[in-house]
Amino acid sequence: MWRISLRARKEIRWANFSLAKRDKQETERNLCSFFAKPQRRLGYLILAPILTLIPCFPLHATGDSTRYLTPRDTVYLSINAGGEKIFEHKLVKGQTVFSLAKFYGLNLDMLKYYNPGLNVDNVPLGKKIKVPIPNRSIIRYRQKGFNPRQYAPVFYRVKAGDNLYRLGKVYFRMPEDTIKARAKLKDGALQPGQLVHIGWISPFPIQAEAQAARPPMPTTIKKAAELKEKFEAYAKNKKLTLNRNQGIATWQKDMPNGQNHYALHDQAPAGSVIEIYNPVTRRTVYARVLGKIPGASYTNNMAVMLSQPTAKLLGAKDPKFFVKIKFYK
Q: Is CATH 2.40.40.10 the classification given to domain 217-328?
């Protein structure tokens, strides 16, 4: 009579487990492919409480501990005030904001810009981090040999005021007829909350060059990051003292939208770099001081005058807003 060793029995059990796991993953992939099609989204919405238990149906893309995006994820895009495509990545065990930023072709300063108040040194698991997706990273059409199972489907969630022209010409650079067909529209009327299948995205890292091709924001962020390094270097100079003040910041909306970050400040030395913090948006930006505030523009509570790129990075919407400032002298 043949006797099976303990090691052999363990290998058999592991083989059975692996087969079961592979069958389970294949079933999940089949469900993903089935419900990823726009005409079946109603079924997905009805079964959402159940389907969200399947890894490919998180409300926010998560990937796994080694990959930040997998074909089992579904990417839901929104459009921010700057017209950029944004989706939220939910951080899971084994992932860090440092490697997440690298995966999406970003640096930490860019990631903090899209996530005001983000403390990169202490990010709890489950934190939803906003990530910009460059237009060129979205695959809009199936080419010969294209296998959609190897890519994560991308959907756009319609908001109030959207129409076919905006989605096709402004957001995704696609023919309106294509958007209409994928949304299964008869009269062309989009409804808020409606999901429109835009295309697919690769589970492989986004190249930094693709992110840098989104003008003009990445350029201004890069310049701001360089100024930040100069400001932080002041702390190593024992001859300089850290000073603080706060008050109203002003900027002119009709000024040319350049790439330079500069400020006019009465106390900081000309040529130095100051730190400006907007407590409403919780954004911090650095700017070079060109000189003092002109007397004709000065008011009692005015603290600083800013260039347009600096004000925009701070999230300013009004020509006057409250800020807190740090500077060395």
A: yes
Is the sign of the CA dihedral 32, 36, 39, 43 positive or negative? positive
Domain range annotation of the chain: 20-212, 217-328
| pLDDT digits 0-9 by tens, 188-228 | 688 888 999 999 999 888 877 777 655 445 556 667 778 88
Per DSSP, 113 falls in state H
Q: Where are the beta strands (DSSP E) in 67-220?
A: 75-79, 85-90, 128-132, 138-139, 152-157, 195-201
Q: Would you put residue 39 in left (φ > 0), alpha (ψ -120 to 50) or beta? A: alpha
Cα–Cα distance between 275 and 228 in angstroms, integer? 8
Pairing of strands 242-250, 302-306: parallel
Give residue 259's pLDDT.
58
CA–CA separation, 13 and 313 (whole Å)? 57
139 sits in the region (left: phi over 0; alpha: psi -120 to 50; else beta) called beta
- Please name the residue that has the structure tokens 């930094």: 208
Which of the 8 DSSP states describes residue 277? E
pTM above 0.90, yes or no: no
3-class SS string, 304-323: EEECHHHHHHCCCCCCEEEE
- Residues 106, 217: contact at Cβ < 8 Å? no
* DSSP three-state, residue 58: coil
Strands of 195-201's sheet, edge to edge? 128-132, 85-90, 75-79, 152-157, 195-201, 138-139
